[in-house]
Design brief:
Shape: globular
Number of domains: 1
CATH superfamily: Gcn5-related N-acetyltransferase (GNAT)
Order of helices and strands: EHHEEEHEHEEEE
CATH topology: Aminopeptidase
Number of strands: 9
Length: about 190
């Protein structure tokens, strides 16, 4: 079941974060995210974070997908990614990008099954090291083009999917970037 996260979920989310990423996000970052859309899978076995930009290109970036190591390869990451892409598509997003460390083959395979394609690779540098393992020398940028016919994954419409358990309507959050682009952040 996918549901909205609560303050009580943060300890479990931080545990997954610390087990999944060498440089974890802070409690403050996750607490701030509770004011936005924040969904978790199952008994807080995983989470996904994405950010949208509705400027010129209707693009989104998946910032993180974390699943507890003991729950990996059980379909939780797939369910979170499917739900995340469904919400992004429902918001009119046409292009989704993400960065993944080149050493994370299971994650790359997951993204590829949804239609993501590697568009380029880069050496890890200081500007992105906060989000990447410092041991990884390269990362891939992957992209997925979404059309409104939803070719990325077969699924039921958002309101007809029995696996989903939303606690009310998901509120939008928008902020204007320095370049005038309108971003909204979605955290699952």
């Amino acid at each position: 079941m996918i549901r909205t996260a609560t303050e009580q979920d943060l300890d479990s989310i931080l545990k997954i974060e610390r087990l999944s990423f060498e440089v974890p996000w802070s409690l403050r970052s996750f607490r701030k995210a509770l004011q936005k859309i924040f969904l978790v899978e199952n008994e807080v076995a995983g989470f996904l974070i994405a950010e949208c930009c509705h400027c010129r290109c209707n693009m989104a970036t998946i910032k993180k997908l974390g699943v507890h190591p003991e729950q990996r390869r059980t379909g939780i990451g797939k369910d979170l990614l499917d739900m995340g892409l469904t919400i992004l598509m429902d918001r009119g997003i046409e292009l989704v990008k993400l960065n993944v460390e080149s050493s994370r083959n299971p994650a790359i395979r997951l993204y590829t099954t949804f239609g993501f394609r590697i568009t380029h690779s880069s050496f890890c540098n200081t500007a992105i090291s906060f989000a990447m393992d410092s041991n990884a020398s390269t990362f891939y940028t992957m992209e997925l083009k979404i059309n409104q016919k939803n070719t990325f994954s077969p699924h039921l419409p958002l309101n007809e999917n029995p696996k989903l358990n939303f606690n009310g309507i998901l509120p939008p959050f928008e902020a204007e970037g320095q370049d005038g682009a309108i971003w909204d952040e979605i955290i699952w």
